[in-house]
Backbone:
């Protein structure tokens, strides 16, 4: 092989964005030794020492710039991250506060819901009670309506009865007027016309006057005598009643008029009998002087008779006796 040959050339690398003067001053790299091998390998460029120093500085500057850019980006990212964390922390606190407020609101709403549920149950119960009360009242109204209709019917019937009673009353007043006229005529006939000379007297013909009273002594034969009840009915038919003795003078008068009948002294019924264990007159008063009656104590079913020789006597009300009636005389 022949000895290797060395060829030297100057190679300059230029930046497209730089001016020619700047390329010459700063970015010019000169390779002084270029050795070409004949063995077919690629040619190797060997820089000189001055070019190597500049390249190293450029690399450091590039690395420093890159680091600065990265650092700046990191700072920016950190600031952004810090702001986001701060915002998220504040937002989280706000959310926690809102969550607490929502929980308190939820508790209040729960209480309100519980109260509303209770009120709803109470309202339902009240509604059921009111419904039942309404049904009861409706039934009462129905019954009252029916009762009112019945009362209206009864009122109409009463109005009809009132008219009938009014007509009957008018007829009775007319009849009473006619009866009074008839009584007045009867009184005149009995107390005046029948008597001798047309003079009016206080007692009817056949009645015995004594004071302001008139007495009728009924002394039929024994076969026509009657019980105490029948005797009283006879007196009532004569607008009078059995004798009620009010004092001793009247007692003596009644005893004097207790005549014998067919030679015997059977006695005459008085208006005195035992009622409710007491001696009572037919006018409802009690016998005040018990010494007037011989038999004591009072026994139910006993009535009093007047006997001339023995005063008053208690006998069975069913015995047959005469009787004595009494009524007020006519006031002239």
Residues:
């Amino acid at each position: 092989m022949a000895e290797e040959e060395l060829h030297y050339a100057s190679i300059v690398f230029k930046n497209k964005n730089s001016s020619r003067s700047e390329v010459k001053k700063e970015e010019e790299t000169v390779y002084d030794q270029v050795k070409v091998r004949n063995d077919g390998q690629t040619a190797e460029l060997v820089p000189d020492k001055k070019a190597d120093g500049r390249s190293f500085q450029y690399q450091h500057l590039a690395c420093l710039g890159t680091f600065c850019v990265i650092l700046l980006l990191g700072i920016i990212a950190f600031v952004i991250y810090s702001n986001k964390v701060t915002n998220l922390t504040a937002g989280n606190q706000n959310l926690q506060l809102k969550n607490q407020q929502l929980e308190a609101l939820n508790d209040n709403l729960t209480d309100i819901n519980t109260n509303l549920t209770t009120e709803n149950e109470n309202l339902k119960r009240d509604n059921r009670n009111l419904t039942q009360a309404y049904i009861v009242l409706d039934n009462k109204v129905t019954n009252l309506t029916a009762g009112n209709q019945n009362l209206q019917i009864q009122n109409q019937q009463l109005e009809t009865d009132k008219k009938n009673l009014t007509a009957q009353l008018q007829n009775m007043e007319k009849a009473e007027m006619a009866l009074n006229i008839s009584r007045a005529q009867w009184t005149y006939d009995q107390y005046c016309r029948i008597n001798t000379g047309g003079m009016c007297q206080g007692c009817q013909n056949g009645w015995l006057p004594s004071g302001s009273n008139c007495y009728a002594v009924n002394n039929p034969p024994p076969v026509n005598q009657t019980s105490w009840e029948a005797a009283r009915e006879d007196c009532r038919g004569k607008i009078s009643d059995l004798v009620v003795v009010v004092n001793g003078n009247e007692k003596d008068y009644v005893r004097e008029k207790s005549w014998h009948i067919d030679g015997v002294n059977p006695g005459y019924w008085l208006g005195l009998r035992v009622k409710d264990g007491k001696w009572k007159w037919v006018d409802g008063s009690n016998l005040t002087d018990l010494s007037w009656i011989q038999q004591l104590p009072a026994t139910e079913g006993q009535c009093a008779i007047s006997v001339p020789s023995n005063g008053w006597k208690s006998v069975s009300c069913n015995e047959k006796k005469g009787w004595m009636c009494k009524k007020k005389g006519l006031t002239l």
Remarks:
- Residues 279 and 287 are 6 Å apart (CA to CA).
- The radius of gyration is 77 Å.
- Helices lie at 20-25, 49-193, 228-237, 248-256.
- The chain is about 50% helix and 15% strand.
